[in-house]
Amino acid sequence: MKSRTGVLLGRLMRNIMRSPDTIITVAITPIAMMLLFVYVFGGAINTGTGNYVNYLLPGILLMAIASGVSYTAFRLFGDIKSGLMARFITMPIKRSSILWAHVLTSLVSNMLTVVVVILVALLMGFRSSAGILEWLAAAGILGLFTLALTWLAIIPGLTAKSMEGATAFSYPLIFLPFISSAFVPTESMPKIVRAFAENQPVTSIVNSIRALLNNGTVGNDIWIALAWCVGIMIITYFIASKVFKRQLG
């Protein structure tokens, strides 16, 4: 399975490398949002921190990933409509390798996008006091978040009737950070909005990454973040696997 998954992964990564504008396109909107909020709104937002880009970056990274996973649905839908998926199924390869190749491609491409966004943030003044272990922990959370959303993206990639339908799921995900602690502390929100913000996955994930990168106290947020990521990943993995077997098996 590993070698066959590697071959399929290589095919998808070559397609991305031939068109690196995909990664750039995914990064453009989050970077634009970061520029807008830091240089236009940042002076009017009180987060209790001296450097707003340090506060903002974790949420921007999640927006970039939410945008990037839509290309997984796009590529998977394209493989199905072109008949390539049907050819793969007739070949002597484990069928789960087909999906895992798309998932791993999403992980690699989104991590590249994350690096691009962080480099821009550094140019804007982002600084971190985190050590190597904290950076690795933050990268691990981002990786789990990417895997969870990618398995979610597999489902519309398999079931959509049009290219637009395959990628439409990502729009609510991209804007979910706006109703979280990504841009402003939840304490400043009205009660109903605050209740939603504090009990949705983005807030705990953002708080965990922010604490790790800024040498803060992570507390229970990291366990809540991990529970959200792992829970979403497990549920969407089983749903995607069943859909795949039913439609193409």
Automatic annotation (TrEMBL):
<comment type="similarity">
    <text>Belongs to the ABC-2 integral membrane protein family.</text>
</comment>
<dbReference type="InterPro" id="IPR013525">
    <property type="entry name" value="ABC2_TM"/>
</dbReference>
<keyword id="KW-0813">Transport</keyword>
<feature type="transmembrane region" description="Helical">
    <location>
        <begin position="98"/>
        <end position="126"/>
    </location>
</feature>
<keyword id="KW-0472">Membrane</keyword>
<feature type="transmembrane region" description="Helical">
    <location>
        <begin position="222"/>
        <end position="240"/>
    </location>
</feature>
<protein>
    <recommendedName>
        <fullName>Transport permease protein</fullName>
    </recommendedName>
</protein>
<dbReference type="GO" id="GO:0043190">
    <property type="term" value="C:ATP-binding cassette (ABC) transporter complex"/>
</dbReference>
<keyword id="KW-0812">Transmembrane</keyword>
<dbReference type="InterPro" id="IPR051784">
    <property type="entry name" value="Nod_factor_ABC_transporter"/>
</dbReference>
<dbReference type="Pfam" id="PF01061">
    <property type="entry name" value="ABC2_membrane"/>
</dbReference>
<feature type="transmembrane region" description="Helical">
    <location>
        <begin position="166"/>
        <end position="184"/>
    </location>
</feature>
<feature type="transmembrane region" description="Helical">
    <location>
        <begin position="132"/>
        <end position="154"/>
    </location>
</feature>
<dbReference type="InterPro" id="IPR000412">
    <property type="entry name" value="ABC_2_transport"/>
</dbReference>
<keyword id="KW-1003">Cell membrane</keyword>
<keyword id="KW-1133">Transmembrane helix</keyword>
<dbReference type="GO" id="GO:0140359">
    <property type="term" value="F:ABC-type transporter activity"/>
</dbReference>
<feature type="transmembrane region" description="Helical">
    <location>
        <begin position="21"/>
        <end position="41"/>
    </location>
</feature>
<dbReference type="InterPro" id="IPR047817">
    <property type="entry name" value="ABC2_TM_bact-type"/>
</dbReference>
<feature type="domain" description="ABC transmembrane type-2">
    <location>
        <begin position="21"/>
        <end position="247"/>
    </location>
</feature>
<feature type="transmembrane region" description="Helical">
    <location>
        <begin position="53"/>
        <end position="77"/>
    </location>
</feature>
